[in-house]
């Protein structure tokens, strides 16, 4: 279920996260999350990003998280939307991926890959590393579909 809190109020039991839609040649860079049952969206394709540190703005957080997770520096992330539910307050940014995918250094997750708009619509993507198809996280698919519809990628 999707809903919005007032922008200046976040319930204490809901985490604030900053996530990145990184795009290249009409596709979207996504992370295949580890298959660990105790993490959110295990074994699903999702965005790079994560929890905000105390005192950190969402823009600072998305830059830090992407650097930590794939050693990629986002110069000017563009705010896309805020997506709230009972799990998290998600600040979604987008930016171009300006390096070849082979130049990235995956530090977190089982795989990474460029996902086509068709794969987003189907809700699943093939993992080259695992040699198998894995689903997109439902929330990530919803956000990407809204991004595709609004931005036209």
UniProtKB/TrEMBL annotation:
Its cofactor is Mg(2+). It comes from the Bacteria. One of its GO terms (cellular component) is cytoplasm. Gene3D superfamilies: Nucleoside Triphosphate Pyrophosphohydrolase. One of its GO terms (molecular function) is metal ion binding. Residues 12-138 form the Nudix hydrolase domain. InterPro entries: NUDIX_hydrolase-like_dom_sf (IPR015797), NUDIX_hydrolase_CS (IPR020084), NUDIX_hydrolase_dom (IPR000086). Keywords: Hydrolase, Magnesium, Metal-binding. Belongs to the Nudix hydrolase family. This is NUDIX hydrolase. It comes from Crocosphaera subtropica (strain ATCC 51142 / BH68). The lineage of its organism: Bacteria, Bacillati, Cyanobacteriota, Cyanophyceae, Oscillatoriophycideae.
């Amino acid at each position: 279920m999707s809903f919005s809190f007032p922008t200046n109020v976040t319930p204490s039991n809901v985490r604030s996260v900053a996530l990145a839609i990184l795009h290249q040649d009409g596709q979207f860079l996504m992370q295949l999350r580890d298959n660990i049952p105790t993490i959110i969206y295990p074994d699903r394709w999702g965005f790079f990003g994560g929890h905000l540190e105390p005192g950190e703005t969402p823009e600072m957080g998305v830059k830090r998280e992407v650097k930590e997770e794939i050693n990629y520096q986002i110069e000017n992330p563009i705010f896309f939307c805020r997506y709230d539910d009972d799990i998290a307050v998600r600040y979604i940014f987008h930016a171009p991926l300006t390096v070849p995918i082979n130049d990235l250094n995956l530090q977190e997750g089982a795989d990474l890959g460029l996902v086509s708009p068709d794969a987003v619509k189907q809700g699943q993507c093939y993992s080259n590393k695992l040699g198998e198809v894995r689903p997109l996280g439902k929330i990530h698919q919803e956000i990407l579909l809204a991004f595709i519809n609004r931005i036209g990628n």
